[in-house]
Amino acid sequence: MLFLEKDTESSRIRTEEKEIEKTEEIHHQFQRFLNEISKLTNDYELKVANRLFGEKTYLFLQKYLDYVEKYYHASLEPVDFLNAADESRKKINSWVESQTHEKIKDLFANGSLSSSTKLVVVNVIYFKGQWDREFAKENTQEEEFWLNKSTSKSVLMMTQHQSFSFMILEDLQAKILGIPYKNNDLSMFVLLPDDIDGLEKIIDKITPSELIEWTSPGHMEERTVNLHLPRFEVEDSYDMEAVLAAVGMADAFNEQQADSSGMSSPSRLHAQKFLHRSFVEVSEEGTEAAAATGISFAMTSAPDYEKFHCNHPFLFFIRHNEADSVLFFGRFSSP
Predict the structure, then answer these.
(1) Where do the domains of the chain lie, and which CATH numbers do they carry?
(2) Widest CA span of the chain, in angstroms?
(3) Could you read off the pLDDT tens digit of each residue along the chain, which spans 335 residues?
(4) Cα 46–chain centre separation
(5) Which residues, at least 6 apart from 209, have a Cβ–Cβ distance to it below 8 Å?
(6) Cα–Cα distance measured from residue 111 to residue 89, given in angstroms and rounded to the nearest whole number
(7) Distance between CA 91 and CA 94 in Å, rounded?
(8) Is the pTM for the entire model greater than 0.90?
């Protein structure tokens, strides 16, 4: 939604027309994405919610509000940052908590918002789904999970011997496996390095576009796999200012350089904080998750079944197959 902050005229002065068209396409893609994943189903719960919390005395341009409503399904809720910043903070946190079924609490810490705050933009995504084939709880046993070659911790390891989408990534010295949820609209994919300490060696070599390509229909093959996957829970938070600066949006955080002429009048609105917090829980029944942001393919003459033993650090991501999008991405390095 921050891409909408500059009006069309100033954008044409400061950027090439091709870049403007690219930005417009981003908005349309996100609109299509929201429409796709908002389809009602009884097989899982998937919710994406966006909301603007704006200082009630500040003038936001109606054109901007119409855009975020159209493309991002987000509305503006007036709050009193000027006279009641902490009450406004609690109100925002309460909304996030309700949207994520209490999985994400206190997104904004005490004192993080002040009387100078004019706008808070919140994006929330929540998912709860059951595996297409659940893990039998009686097969879950305590095992060692190796943090590195010399240190291990105990985990509850789930097991399943079934047919899964599978691929060997020979150049990465890793393999990837897909576990479908009911209805097969979504899948969790696990990328497991061959070596115990292999994750750090490959994590900088892969991109989101490669993950999408590898897991697209036709790239992976169905194989019988003896899967060992730990029951795990991951929660983390990130300050996204450095990330946005890396993709050319550092000006958005600079009070003197920020151009918000497409959002408000006056146009000196600048971003103060950009926080992201995520939560993922994986168990025998399925997954509950919330967030509030040239490889060669090898086919080998394989044995009767593949072994996929997740007893050392691995990457995981949840993919919406129809929307061709990654909803959650994370790593499990330590219980």
Answers:
(1) 2-129+234-279 (3.30.497.10), 131-230+294-332 (2.30.39.10)
(2) 69
(3) 544 444 444 444 444 444 445 556 666 666 666 666 666 567 778 877 888 888 898 888 888 888 888 887 888 899 998 899 999 999 999 998 998 888 888 888 898 888 888 888 888 888 888 999 999 999 999 999 999 999 999 999 999 999 999 999 998 999 999 999 988 888 999 999 999 999 988 888 888 788 888 888 778 999 999 999 999 888 766 555 554 455 444 444 444 444 455 565 554 554 455 566 777 888 889 887 777 643 333 334 445 789 999 999 999 988 888 777 788 888 899 88
(4) 13
(5) none
(6) 9
(7) 5
(8) no
Structure tokens at 179: 């576990």
Q: What is the rounded distance in angstroms from the CA atom of residue 323 to the CA atom of residue 98?
A: 25
In sequence order, what E strands does the chain have?
44-55, 75-79, 119-130, 141-146, 152-169, 174-180, 186-193, 221-230, 232-239, 275-282, 286-291, 297-298, 306-309, 314-320, 325-332
Q: How many CB atoms lie within 10 A of CB 215?
A: 22
